[in-house]
Amino acid sequence: MAEEVAAIVSVDPAERPRGIYTARVDAKGRLKLPSAFQKFLASLKEDHYFITTTNETTVYIYPLSEWKKFEASLDQPENEEQVDMFAAVRFVADKYGADAVIDGEGRMLLPQPVRAEFKMHDAQVYVQCGRNRIEVLNEDEYRARERAADKVKLAKANTLLALKGFK
Description:
Oligomer: single chain
CATH architecture: 3-Layer(aba) Sandwich
Mean pLDDT: 89
Number of domains: 1
Distance between the termini: 45 Å
């Protein structure tokens, strides 16, 4: 009975935004989230986030519950090589990361090390929603990804997808 009530009362999160959106980081380092992202995050019913990078190319915004899952996976390496790799990821994440909240105007304050390293100060950025996080790209990384998506690769990928039934 209690499970039935919980199933009726629970609210599914809004669908994640698709596509790449432009956004702005103001002079104070606050990222103004596009309204689709604000709506999506509000539907998750989480108030706290962790903003960081794990690869020094992309800024990630994790709901805190997702970040805690990621941290737990870093604590469970399967071999010695992973011990060193996961320690490096944790170091980089801690070096750049900080907890964050969304203010009443849909803005998040990016950590100062992120703003400095990624040149995200009074700048346009690009945001897209991943499976369990939001990715924020600066202009340089966006253009690098744009160049990497060359026409030959796209043609091959689309041919492969067509063979799998996606047309």
